[in-house]
């Protein structure tokens, strides 16, 4: 009995299927965001502060550290800090958050 070749045509709107090593656009979740630790509260003489670690993979913009006034370039891990007990509420505190070098935050001057 002769074999028949059944070739299926792909629909014109689909391209080649991505390999298992390729990321599909919009597919899957960014696991690094899930693994980031939640902000922790640090208590200091100048108040209570939320401190969030920003891993290098998520640091995509340039920021200026308020302690040393140097830039924190993209791709550098750092801390995002905002006041926990802001006078005008949590929303305002988040708007006024600042990005710090780890060392600068650890050795900051408290007035």
The termini sit apart by 91 Å
Low-confidence regions: none
- Which H/E pattern describes the elements? HEEEEEHEH
* Helix/strand/pairing category: alpha+beta
Beta strands, count: 6
Average pLDDT figure? 78
Compute the number of helices: 3
**Fraction of helical residues:** 10-25%
Strand order of the largest sheet: 1-2-5-6
| Sheet of most strands | 4 strands, antiparallel
Percentage of residues in DSSP E strands: 15-25%
Rg, Cα atoms, Å: 24 Å
Question: What is the global morphology?
Answer: elongated
Protein name: ATP/GTP-binding protein
Organism: Rothia aerolata
Region (Disordered): 1-34
Biased composition (Basic residues): 1-11
Description:
The mean pLDDT is 78. The chain is of the alpha+beta class and 111 residues long. The strands form 2 sheets. The chain has a 4-stranded antiparallel sheet. The protein has helices spanning 31-35, 90-95, 102-106; strands spanning 40-44, 47-54, 63-64, 71-72, 78-83, 98-100. It has a domain at 34-106. The protein is elongated, with a radius of gyration of 24 Å. Helices cover 14% and strands 23% of the residues. Residues 1-34 are annotated as: Disordered. Residues 1-11 have a biased composition (Basic residues). This is ATP/GTP-binding protein.
């Amino acid at each position: 009995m002769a074999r028949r070749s059944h070739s299926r045509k792909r629909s014109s709107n689909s391209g080649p299927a991505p390999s298992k090593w390729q990321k599909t656009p919009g597919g899957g979740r960014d696991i690094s965001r899930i693994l980031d630790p939640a902000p922790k509260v640090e208590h200091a003489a100048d108040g209570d502060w939320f401190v969030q670690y920003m891993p290098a993979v998520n640091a995509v913009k340039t920021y200026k550290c308020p302690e040393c006034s140097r830039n924190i370039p993209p791709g550098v891990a750092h801390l995002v800090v905002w006041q926990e007990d802001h006078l005008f509420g949590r929303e305002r505190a988040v708007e006024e958050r600042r990005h710090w070098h780890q060392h600068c935050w650890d050795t900051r001057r408290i007035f």
